[in-house]
Amino acid sequence: MIEGVGGATVEILVGVDVGGTFTDAAVLVGRRLVTAKRPTTPEDQSVAAVEAVEEALRVAGLEAGDVTGFAHGMTVGTNALLEGRGARTALVATEGFGDVLELRRQTRAHLYDLARAHPPPLVPAGRVFEVSERCGPEGVVRPLDPASLDAAIDGVRHSDATAVAVGLLFSFASPDHERAVADALRERLPGVHVSASHEVLPEIREYERISTTVVDAYLTPVLRAYLRRLEDRAAGAGLPAPAIMQSSGGVLPIEASADHAAWTVLSGPAAGVIGAAAIAGDQGIEDALTFDMGGTSCDVALVQAGTPARTTETEIAGHPIHLPMLDVVTVSAGGGSIAWADSGGALRVGPRSAGARPGPAAYAAGGTEPTVTDANLLLGRLPDDQALGGRITLDRGAAEAAVADLAGRLGMTPTACAEGILTVANQEMVRALRRVSVERGVDPRRCTLVAFGGAGPLHAAGVADELGIDRVLCPPAAGVLAALGLVVAGERRDYVQTVLLPVADGSDLPARLEPLRTRARGDLPDGSHEAAADCRYRGQTHAITIPWQPEEPIERLAEAFHRAHQRRYGDADTTRPVEVVSLRLAAALPGVQPRLDGATVGAREAGPRFMAMDGATCWVADGWEGRLQASGGIELERTA
């Protein structure tokens, strides 16, 4: 904290986001934003994270001791899941139900490809141990057998597992047996991390609950080790302990985050959505599609009425994770995505990426395969006389050589090949944006495209053309917007409890919500509360999450569900009974709202041309105009 104008103190807020290619830092000092980029250090992401913060503070003329808040988003958990580098994990299940991960939902991996296989479970059959017990929705059916518990603990011990997931039947309703198993494991195997499903996800559906708990157990030792290194490195640099971005779009203290890695699998993408929603809201934009294209991947999401869309289910590397999170769709299309020719001679882009090392051929750091960045440079959409990220001078000759080699194999000119690379990459991202808009019943033409990430503004106009969008906002500091999102994000905690109750007069739904409120008040005493209910028609399998005001007449919840069902599926039966599957509660403390200015509003500039930005380059395509805003962002509008 420093002294501002008139003697008032000014908070110094820092956010650092780790991407596949660059690690970005943002320092917010009142209305002034200072940014920095460093190449990501894959062997230990905390190295580049702290270096980026130190560089941003140096540019801002500040010391580490001035920092009052530090937030961090990363891809440690996601990478460990994708690359199979999690902890050696065991599972303790109810006797007779140890094969739940193998059976899954008994659905095919692909509807039409009968040879396609599901990925193997994170816990092989040899590390699954069963205990004799049985609980039902009303309580204990068969007591927990101590001998079977002793045998399971011995099995975990001799399996050399460093993490164990405990998932017993009906523990979301009757957790006593599961709690006893978890307590015994923690007491007798003190060096082994234990994730219990009633702590991770007290919700109906045993496969999803146990899969999520296994993911939590598999990733938590890896994340905890990383967070300890990060905390030590930050302390050594004089920085405060960082708060960690969760998949739900809010930060948590580092201690709480280290206990449940499953909460952080979309940490980095969530930060970008929060930053984009904040900037859009500052400009009065309520409905937006966020488009975050970095070096390795592209993340997209929907913002409606100023609020990012949320979901309670996702799948990463074939493993379901059912936790509250922002509804983000990720595709393997980034600046470093490698272009190649398949066996049929068709041009393909991704999913392989050149990453931070060696990077695209244009980085002249050892990469020889053509990437999206190389195609942009070859077509004149990137300047070759400026350092990318302040450090990397692009080598046009190397980019041309890489693209020309692929063009020769495809029988194309290098220019046509580069244009084809961008077209293929754009189509991949357009499909992702349609998933979060058209497939959710939202017309993308009514939205503003908010494009950010190092490559987002380069591709925004082309993507907008495909979707029929007329307006694009490239925010200030577009290349590091996820880091800004970390700065402005508030603290958030989410709670869920399955109840299976009818929506009718006399329902005790408000009373069943009260235990969640009690927990929320203990965790965030000053937080505001938002309730929701997962509703369905009696007899249905899946539910729709409906915002809920517990103080209002209960009939309004049913009415809201009928309307949501009509929007989602095209019909509704108002005579059919509605039931609540689970109650949800979010407790939140708001973050700061960015108010950035200092730039001079520019004249409209017609394309085709590029416009430089902080950490990114904006391409104004033919038929578009670009204008520099007072915030430092660029607004694109279609003219043809």
Question: Can you give a write-up of this model?
Answer:
- With 640 residues, the chain is α+β, with helices and mostly antiparallel strands.
- It folds into five domains: 11-81 and 235-267, ATPase, nucleotide binding domain (Nucleotidyltransferase, domain 5, 2-Layer Sandwich); 85-223, 3-Layer(aba) Sandwich (Rossmann fold); 274-321 and 447-487 and 597-638, no CATH class; 337-424, no CATH class; 492-589, 2-Layer Sandwich (Dna Ligase, domain 1), CATH 3.30.1490.
- The strands form eleven sheets. Strands 15, 16, 17, 22, 27, 28, 33, 36 and 37 form a nine-stranded mixed beta sheet that branches. A six-stranded mixed beta sheet has the order 5-4-3-6-13-14, with helices on both faces. The protein has a four-stranded parallel beta sheet with strand order 8-7-11-12, with helices on both faces.
- Helix 1 crosses helix 7 (206-236), helix 2 (76-83) packs across helix 7 (206-236) and helix 10 crosses helix 11.
- The radius of gyration is 25 Å and the shape is globular.
- Residues 3-8 have low confidence and may be disordered.
Helical content stands at 25-40%
Oligomer status: single chain
Total DSSP helices:
16
Structural class: alpha+beta
Quickly count the domains.
Answer: 5
Terminal residue distance: 49 Å
What is the arithmetic mean of pLDDT? 91
Computed over alpha carbons, the radius of gyration is 25 Å
Please write the CATH class name of the largest domain: Alpha Beta
Overall shape:
globular
Number of strands: 37
Question: What is the CATH architecture assignment of the largest domain?
Answer: 3-Layer(aba) Sandwich
Can you summarize the main beta sheet? 9 strands, mixed
Stretches with pLDDT under 50, minimum 5 residues = 3-8
CATH topology of the largest domain: Rossmann fold
Hey, roughly how much beta strand do the residues contain? 25-35%
